[in-house]
Amino acid sequence: MANPTDQQPWRLGPRARRWLDRALVGFVLLVGGMGHFLAGQLPAMVFTAAEALPLLWRRSRPWPAFLAVALASALQAAAYDQPTVGQLAFPVAVYSVARWSPRWQGIAALLVGYAGALVAAARWMYGLGAGEVTAANLVPYTVTIGAIVTAAWALGFAAQSREKYVASLVARAEQAERMAEREVELAARDERSRIAREMHDVVAHGLSVIVVQADGARYAAAKDPDVAVGTLETISSTGRAALTEMRRLLGLLRDGDTGVAPQPGLADVRHLVDEARAAGTRVEADLPEPAPDVPGGVGLAAYRIVQESLTNVRKHAGPEARVSVRVRVGREVEVEVRDDGRGAAAHSDGRGLGLAGMRERAAVHGGALDAGPVTGGGFAVSARLPL
């Protein structure tokens, strides 16, 4: 069943409008021309044709068509003192100007119509032998003709106003559609950036742990195979966890998959510390126990900041670096990761996403993040996330 809101108002097409105008002119010529011809009124028949024919261009050239009709009517008033059927074209021409021409032309046509009403009333009364033309017998005819002209002008003006109103609604709807498309595009871009940050954190952290553990396993295999076995188990579990998170993130990009697996939070920071220690990094942790409940987005941001900071320590601080991880929860979540390694002097190509991603995460929640070298050597990351 068709939706009623999808139905468009019925309108004539271009071809139908042309045939309608031709039928209108043909009707006036047939009825008026033949009537005047049969009555022996040849001048009236000529003026009827002169007044009706310009209506063929009343849509494409409404103002010239009106001027032609008005000129023919003026010549008729001067040369013929009786009404003709062709004078029905005058209100049609006034309507056309009010409908399709600028407003000033419509008002001009209305004023010309009022003047024509007065002249036509006086001329008709004189031609019909009404005797002396006085205000008493002139006013009824003038008012009647003027009312017809006013009604024609009002109909045209209302139609033009409605058309402009509909056009403005269509323009606003198109603008709203363009804005909606732009908002969807911006939202998709933001989502891609968010997924890129998540992917960077997951891949960089997981691979850094795997690389460190693999190096350790290679050296330990020759001396203590049991240590190598435990290290390989850590590599396996880390790789599986990273793959699980990657599948969840990639699920957001697939149709029909919402990727609603549980997100890590503040309580999972301890797992990051244990993982870093298992990878050989010397970590001192000061974490709230048990982890307090915080909004999911804030908890995820804190987790990712610690995760990326520990990844940077493994990549840049050196094998002998010591790390302290501190998390405080009060009116805001405070996160600090500080090391005493050589990360401050490490070379960077300037294209990394780590620090930029951490700052973006903090800014999303109205917080701030500071990162840089510390006095005495090392590097520190400090973030504040309001609750």
Automatic annotation (TrEMBL):
Highest rank taxon of the organism: Bacteria
Sections of the chain in a coiled coil: none
GO MF annotation: an example: protein dimerization activity
A Pfam family it matches: HisKA_3
Family annotation (PROSITE patterns): HIS_KIN
Reactions performed catalytically: ATP + protein L-histidine = ADP + protein N-phospho-L-histidine
Annotated InterPro entries: DUF7134, HATPase_C_sf, HATPase_dom, His_kinase_dom, Sensor_HK_TwoCompSys, Sig_transdc_His_kin-like_C, Sig_transdc_His_kin_sub3_dim/P
Location of this chain's protein in the cell: Cytoplasm
Histidine kinase domain residues: 304-387
Transmembrane segments: 20-42, 107-126, 138-159
SUPFAM superfamilies assigned to the protein according to its UniProt record, in alphabetical order: ATPase domain of HSP90 chaperone/DNA topoisomerase II/histidine kinase (SSF55874)
E.C. designation(s): 2.7.13.3
Alphabetized Gene3D superfamilies for the sequence: 1.20.5.1930, Histidine kinase-like ATPase, C-terminal domain
Keyword vocabulary terms for this entry: 4Fe-4S, ATP-binding, Cytoplasm, Iron, Iron-sulfur, Kinase, Membrane, Metal-binding, Nucleotide-binding, Phosphoprotein, Transferase, Transmembrane, Transmembrane helix, Two-component regulatory system
Single GO cellular component term: membrane
Cofactor(s) required for function per UniProt: [4Fe-4S] cluster
Function: Member of the two-component regulatory system NreB/NreC involved in the control of dissimilatory nitrate/nitrite reduction in response to oxygen. NreB functions as a direct oxygen sensor histidine kinase which is autophosphorylated, in the absence of oxygen, probably at the conserved histidine residue, and transfers its phosphate group probably to a conserved aspartate residue of NreC. NreB/NreC activates the expression of the nitrate (narGHJI) and nitrite (nir) reductase operons, as well as the putative nitrate transporter gene narT.
Name of this chain's protein: Oxygen sensor histidine kinase NreB
Species for this entry: Nocardioides cavernae
